[in-house]
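Reminder to self: keep the SMILES exactly as supplied, no canonicalising. Ligand is magnesium ion.
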Amino acid sequence: MVDSLTHFSEAQARLVTPIVEGRGLTRTFPMPSGPVTALREVSIDVSPGEYVAITGPSGCGKSTLLHLLGCVDAPTSGSLLFEGHDVSRLSESARSRIRLTRIGFIFQRFFLLPMLDAWENVELPQAEIGVGSQDRRQRTRELLEYVGLGDRAHHRPSQLSGGEMQRVAIARALANRPALLLADEPTGELDEDTGGQIADLFDRVHADGTAIIVVTHNQLLAGRAKRHLAMKRGTVESAAPVMTS
Amino acid sequence: MTSRALAWRTMTAERARGGLAIAGVAVIGALLFDMLLLSHGLLVSYRALLESAGYDVRVVATDNVIVRMPIPNATAIAGAIERLPEIREVAILRRARAAVLASGRSLQDVTLLSISAGAERHAWRIVAGSNPGPDEQAIEPPPLVVNRKLAEAASLSPGSIVRVRVALAAASALPAVPFRVVGIGDFLFDTADDLTASTSVGGFVRAKAAGSGDEAEVLLVASRPEFGPAAAAAAIQRLRPDLRAYSNEQLVAQINENGFAYFRQISFVLSSITLGFAFLLVATLLTVSVNQQLGQVAALRALGIPRRRIAATLLWESALLVGVGGLLSIPLGWALASVLDRILRDMPGISERVHFFVFEPATAAVHLGLLAATGLAAAAYPVWIATRLPIAATLRLETL
Ligand SMILES: Nc1ncnc2c1ncn2[C@@H]1O[C@H](COP(=O)(O)OP(=O)(O)O)[C@@H](O)[C@H]1O
Ligand SMILES: [Mg+2]
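Structure tokens returned for the bound complex:
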């Protein structure tokens, strides 16, 4: 990233503290036919700058885990520390603030605002934390160039391809310089080549020092991660650093 | 980007939806505006009409303002009233049913008036010919000012000679007396179909064959400004407990309590229903719109955009739809009111000068206020959906 140097040193300063620290995370959904346990006693630490891939069959709890780590959902039992703060003790607005300033989210379906162009979509989270218009303009230009869409700034999502929309979404997720980037099947809607571009972009984000947790079925993308969690029926089966290919 | 700008973009991005909503609010708002105008337009207009006559107290013989008994010895009573310190001026209004005979035709149901000299300047406006001058009182035959309707019906113009026969309650025939038309006028209290003629006191007495005494329909009284109409009415009441003196204010209040209360009730019920429609329209459109955008809303929340921002955007969206529609509804409502007013004023028995819909800035303000409140209420449910949605479950559902 453009400000990788400062970012990386900040990350190093926090090296002792993981960004997220989940202990015995369990998430049960009450259903008419009885409770469904989507996640069972999962413990996980992710340190600053790490690149983690989560894989596993559909329905094994990958998204559920990602949502807990991203502070958008709360575990039924177990504890979660985000940068040392017990998330369960935070108010919704405090969790919202963490998401806004420390976490970036990328979705399979992009979820850009269709009435705004690429530029405005990327500006939105910055405006929310009160970045001045001068800095915001500079940052937005940098981000769009970073994802290779400097010339598409004033195109709406409907005028962009799937891969381009996902790149705008990545720029939006990075807008407030998050410590942690979460992606749920970011190439799920994209063809192989386009998925490859997203994988390359993730490599750059990682190289620039942002921690990444990506849930994916995409072998190529999973292969780029430095650590690999394989899930099955709500538990993490194996947690092994993968060999860089 | 501010919430308002975001709301504006949402609205303009979906032109059809925004256009429909605005058109809907404009039409519904026009009806609401008309109901509000109707709820006291008649009173405002009636008061203005009373005041335009230039007298602020009216004296009649009975309590009942609709079926009037005549005031006997009107000249003497008027003189006594005029001597009260509270009173500046008294005019005597006499009235009789008459038939007008002209160019071989006989027009029944003509109202023959006589109003004290000087007071006619308020009672009608001359459109052709002139008012009878003071020296003309003596010229034979006596002068007559007729309204346009009568002039048309009997083909009269200034200079025409007509014969007038006053109708008595009993089927007796008074002789027909000749009159000379001096002017054609617009009479203040005329209704659309009234045939009206006005003459001098002498002419009136002559037409009634002097047999009916010195009777008046109503005494029109102007108070002295330092006392005001309420004190003047009270003084007259003390002087003549057998008569009834009403200030304009009291007359308006009477109308308000009697015939008019029911206009207001209808207007209240219809306004409430109209507001209900506006509420449903905006609430439905916003709810549908939010439901179509649940994925985006959940994504924004996952990205840390706070609830209040999402609520504010929806409130702004509602405010813009209702605001633009509401502003359009004022000219639209006014145009509709003009049409309705014309229809209502054609009702028999309604003075042509009375309006049912009277534009008042305060009414427009109340109208916009009610619409604004409705817009806020209509946004409540969509805001609740958007701010309370479970982020994780929604993201999951919207990705399936
Ligand atoms: N909000 C929910 N309500 C009910 N069941 C849910 C909910 N979210 C997830 N589940 C269930 O939890 C399990 C794991 O879901 P999920 O984490 O979405 O799996 P994955 O992302 O690995 O495909 C599934 O059986 C799913 O049906
Ligand atoms: Mg999933």
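Points to follow up:
The first strand of chain B starts at residue 57 and ends at 60.
Chain B has a mean pLDDT of 85.
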